[in-house]
Specification:
Blueprint (H helix, E strand, L loop, with lengths): L8 H16 L3 H14 L4 H14 L2 H14 L4 H13 L3 H14 L4 H17 L4 E13 L6 E11 L5 E12 L2 E15 L2 E10 L8 E10 L10 E11 L4 E14 L2 E12 L5 E11 L4 E14 L2 E15 L4 E12 L4 E12 L1
Antiparallel strand pairs: 1-2, 1-14, 2-3, 3-4, 4-5, 5-6, 6-7, 7-8, 8-9, 9-10, 10-11, 11-12, 12-13, 13-14
Helix pairs in contact: 1-2, 1-3, 2-3, 3-4, 3-5, 4-5, 5-6, 5-7, 6-7
């Protein structure tokens, strides 16, 4: 649909196809280099410039891509191909309303433009996901019994209220947990904020305390986040570098966790994650371990998770290597109601084996 100067058309078209083949194999650097070389030879070729803007978008070089698009829009106002790339640039950066407007405008003048129809559908789905109910309540429990040692059963429960800000990028929460363990009860209170800075970067900070702590931490600080290593493009496999930090202050000691990890979203609803686990108790050498987890989506309403960890774990201020097998399901009963069921088996070195059954229920409103 896009037209270029006649004298550049044959060579520009060949260069464009070669660049598209490179981009399809995710060799964006080579594709961009080829297009820049072509533009140097044929500086008037709008086709090459547009393709370079598209590749820059796939690389996450949004400023460079937008500069090219701005100049092309000045030269050829209303060109649908230029508007299409501009719409996808907005979509990649999370500006879904702007992307929706771009795609809808194209279709008003060019009905049946398939790429614009697909872009509009993607933007509308993203906006619908952002516009989910702003409030959510979660409540649940965990019941544990023991082998290898004669211990009383544990019964833990929690209630959490979350609020998604109007931007859709920030979530605040408050949480209360009740731990009935070691024949006594501790109650923990937590508040936190999760924020998505860009499509490729998110982070969180949570903090809490236990009033009159007996076996739980008196104070706890959690922070971390993730950075997407690959560009947000249709061809790139989402690969995330993650980091989770935790610091617990007990009555007589302090325990810190440092857990870097990698997560790969292999398909919509599917993810494979692995973490290295480091636990350091004050005055002692750090202990090391690892964990792995698989998440999958079986149907539109049913998902599962499962994994294994062989890592140090702090219970009642005592850090001991623990092998944990865990798994569970998530069932969406409706667009507003979700049920989660889980099981975990902890084999604590030279100590007990714990079997934990958990259930929780979420309501969005």
């Amino acid at each position: 649909m896009f037209t270029s100067p006649t004298k550049a058309e044959p060579s520009a078209g060949q260069i464009t196809e070669e660049a598209r083949a490179l981009a399809a194999s995710e060799d964006y650097e080579s594709a961009a280099a080829l297009l820049r070389q072509g533009i140097a030879e044929y500086p008037e070729s709008a086709r090459l410039q547009l393709e370079l803007a598209r590749v820059y978008g796939w690389q996450g070089k949004y400023a460079e891509a937008e500069n090219i698009i701005a100049e092309l829009e000045r030269q050829t106002p209303g060109n649908p191909d230029v508007s299409l790339v501009a719409g996808y640039l907005a979509y990649y950066q999370g500006y879904y309303a702007q992307a929706q407007q771009r795609f809808a405008s194209i279709l008003e003048n060019y009905p049946g433009y398939e790429d614009a129809e697909n872009g509009l559908a993607n933007a509308q789905r993203a906006l619908a996901a952002q516009d989910k109910s702003e409030w959510r309540s979660d409540t649940g429990f965990e019941w544990s019994h023991f082998e290898r040692q004669d211990r009383a059963n544990w019964f833990n429960s929690f209630t959490q209220l979350s609020h998604q800000m109007s931007s859709g990028e920030t979530v605040l929460h408050g949480r209360v947990e009740r731990f009935d363990q070691f024949e006594t009860i501790d109650t923990y209170y937590q508040a936190g904020i999760d924020h998505r800075f860009t499509e490729r970067l998110y982070g969180y900070v949570h903090a809490g305390f236990t009033a009159g702590a007996d076996f739980r931490p008196q104070r706890r600080l959690l922070l971390g986040g993730g950075y997407r290593l690959t560009p947000v493009t249709p061809h790139a496999l989402p690969v995330w570098l993650t980091l989770d930090l935790q610091h617990d202050k007990y009555k007589d000691t302090e325990v810190s966790n440092f857990n870097p990890g990698l997560r790969i979203n292999t398909a919509p609803g599917w993810a494979l994650a692995a973490k290295l686990v480091t636990v350091k108790e004050a005055g002692l050498d750090p202990l090391y371990g690892w964990s792995g987890r698989l998440d999958g989506k079986l149907t539109d309403s049913l998902a599962f998770y499962g994994g294994y960890a062989n890592a140090p774990e702090a219970v009642a201020a005592r850090v001991v290597d623990t092998a944990t097998l865990f798994g569970g399901i998530r069932l969406d009963l409706s667009t507003r109601h979700t049920l989660r069921l889980g099981y975990a088996r902890d084999d604590r070195e030279n100590s007990y084996i714990r079997h934990a059954l958990s259930a929780s229920f979420s309501v969005a409103f």
